[in-house]
């Protein structure tokens, strides 16, 4: 095999078609080039060591190596949700997820070219000559000639969907993005590592309020499998604490919703240890929940343990949101999913740490923005809150007598009708007599969401008022994300002359009671 000149090698690199990094030859060495996600030639390197092949150097080193000066893909895409701080034990779990996503991003969107050379060639000498001949844009990465990219947000979003990352993984990426934006020296929230039988340390106070959120394994509200806490300092800075919890059950119904599995909580602390850690630390300070589900879950867990519920000053961020943003009534509601869009919040729904942080941010934003609400909302006591029967988007408390004159107060709208969600119809929906609830399925009570067949139906049902003589009692198929009983849907479509592009609007009129109507496109 003759050895090409540096000029010939450069010409071959420039005219070659970029290939995925995984296609790099496993048994060849020589000179190679790296391409960024835009298809631009950015780096020239070589496998000067006899121990390295193109595959080992490009796919395994540059792509999956550490974020240092010699692993260029890893360095250039150490950004946004793809970012991690190397060798940081406090953020290792989240950082490993970010690196996994980065590796997949590079494999899918970046590329490489290569020119094989015989082992007896002076590969390192030829590399230097080729670099000297190359135009500046082809060696922009060489010797750190460029800063890492801004996150290619659209491509990353698409990849996250393609990989079907769980809410737990997406939440980790959101935390990594916040850390990246805060700078390499920013204090990192305390995130639990794989469990060795102990809980992560709580952040040190003082704190002026907390927000708490839980996730459960199944319809039993005491089956808590994750607890998240947002700790808000006097200067309104938020520190997050989150822990997986072993609920001590073999029945996992909601893994599809939050991504937590029995394997993930193996060796984790039980809820009794979590309560022992949190109980005194949270006393005397407002503790916000977004709906009544979280307090009811803590109460159910305490009842199962045969112990008293913690004496916490529970408050409700939904009530605060209703007062601050009344325009959302009948226009998406005041659930976290709706507020996320309306307020531009960045969090991953159905991760307890992320949802707790979002509830805290809702309270902070409401403190700075609610005006003139007294004319629209009635005042109620903090202690009036009655835990609702389900984790719906908005709660439905009833009035009880005021206990003391000087208690902290909320504001609450009188009406309880809430738009749960809207589903745009396709021709497939019309042909098969159903419509999808997947965009807002988390707004329904967990106890009405069952499995993929009647044998795994949910323990409870909801009532659908659709304009027919009789209402329908049904649960939700959590796999297909549709109402299980579809016997009424064809007639509903026919009566309303439904067409592709029309929208089905679902309004909650009472707990577990919904009105369905068609909105013309």
Could you characterize the architecture of this molecule?
The protein has helices at residues 6-15, 54-62, 72-76, 92-109, 123-133, 153-163, 167-182, 255-258, 271-282, 293-305, 317-324, 336-343, 352-369, 427-432, 489-495, and strands at 29-35, 41-46, 111-117, 209-216, 224-232, 238-244, 286-289, 313-316, 378-381, 409-412, 418-424, 449-450, 462-465, 472-474, 476-477, 482-483, 503-510, 513-519. It is α+β, with helices and mostly antiparallel strands. A five-stranded mixed beta sheet has the order 6-5-4-7-8, sandwiched between helices. Strands 11-17-18-13-14 form a five-stranded mixed beta sheet, with no helix packed on it. The protein has a three-stranded antiparallel beta sheet with strand order 2-1-3, with helices on both faces. A hairpin with a 6-residue loop joins strand 13 (462-465) and strand 14 (472-474). Helix 4 (92-109) crosses helix 6 (153-163). The protein is globular.
Can you describe this structure in just a few lines?
With 521 residues, the chain is α+β, with helices and mostly antiparallel strands. The chain has 15 helices and 18 strands. The strands form 5 sheets. A 5-stranded mixed beta sheet has the order 6-5-4-7-8, with helices on both faces. It has a 5-stranded mixed beta sheet with strand order 11-17-18-13-14, with no helix packed on it. A 3-stranded antiparallel beta sheet has the order 2-1-3, sandwiched between helices.
């Amino acid at each position: 095999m003759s050895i090409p000149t540096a000029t010939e090698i450069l010409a071959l690199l420039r005219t070659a078609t970029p290939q995925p990094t995984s296609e790099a030859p496993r048994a060849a060495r020589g000179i190679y080039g790296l391409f960024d996600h835009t298809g631009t030639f950015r780096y020239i390197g070589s496998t000067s060591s006899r121990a390295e092949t193109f595959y080992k150097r490009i796919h395994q080193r540059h792509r999956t190596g550490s974020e240092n000066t010699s692993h260029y893909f890893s360095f250039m895409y150490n950004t946004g949700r793809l970012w991690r701080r190397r060798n940081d034990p406090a953020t290792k779990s989240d950082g490993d997820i970010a690196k996994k996503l980065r590796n997949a991003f590079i494999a899918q969107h970046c590329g490489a070219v290569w020119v094989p050379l015989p082992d007896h060639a002076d590969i390192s000498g030829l590399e230097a000559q080729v670099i000297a001949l190359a135009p500046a844009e082809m060696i922009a990465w060489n010797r750190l000639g460029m800063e890492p990219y801004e996150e290619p947000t659209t491509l990353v979003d698409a990849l996250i969907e393609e990989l079907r990352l769980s809410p737990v993984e997406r939440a980790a990426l959101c935390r990594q993005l916040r850390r990246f934006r805060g700078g390499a020296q920013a204090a990192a929230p305390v995130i639990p590592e794989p469990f060795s039988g102990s809980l992560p340390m709580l952040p040190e106070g003082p704190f002026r309020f907390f927000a708490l959120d839980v996730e459960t394994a199944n319809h039993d509200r005491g089956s808590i499998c994750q607890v998240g806490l947002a700790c808000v300092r006097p200067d309104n800075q938020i520190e997050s604490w989150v822990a997986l919890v072993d609920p001590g059950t073999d029945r996992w119904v909601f893994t599809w919703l939050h991504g937590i599995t029995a394997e993930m909580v193996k060796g984790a602390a039980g809820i009794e240890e979590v309560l022992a850690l949190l109980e005194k630390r949270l006393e005397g300070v407002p503790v916000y929940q977004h709906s009544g589900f979280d307090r009811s879950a803590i109460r159910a867990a305490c009842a199962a343990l045969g112990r008293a519920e913690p004496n916490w000053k529970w408050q409700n961020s939904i009530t605060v949101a209703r007062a601050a943003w009344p325009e959302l009534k009948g226009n998406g509601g005041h659930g976290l999913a709706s507020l996320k869009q309306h307020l531009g919040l960045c969090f991953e729904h159905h991760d307890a740490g992320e949802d707790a942080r979002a509830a805290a941010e809702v309270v902070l934003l409401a403190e700075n923005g609610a005006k003139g609400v007294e004319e629209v909302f009635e005042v109620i006591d903090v202690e009036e809150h009655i835990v609702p029967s389900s984790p719906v988007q908005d709660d439905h408390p009833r009035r009880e007598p005021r206990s003391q004159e000087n208690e902290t107060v909320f504001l609450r709208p009188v009406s309880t009708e809430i738009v749960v969600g809207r589903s745009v119809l396709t021709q497939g929906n019309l042909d098969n007599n159903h419509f999808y609830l997947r965009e807002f399925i988390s707004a329904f009570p967990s106890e009405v969401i069952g499995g993929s067949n009647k044998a795994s139906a949910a323990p409870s049902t909801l009532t659908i008022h659709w304009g027919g003589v009789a209402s329908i009692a049904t649960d939700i198929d959590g796999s297909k994300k549709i109402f299980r009983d579809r016997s009424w849907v064809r007639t509903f479509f026919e009566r309303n002359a439904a067409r592709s592009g029309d929208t089905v609007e679902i309004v909650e009129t009472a707990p577990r009671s919904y009105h369905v109507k068609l909105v013309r496109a």
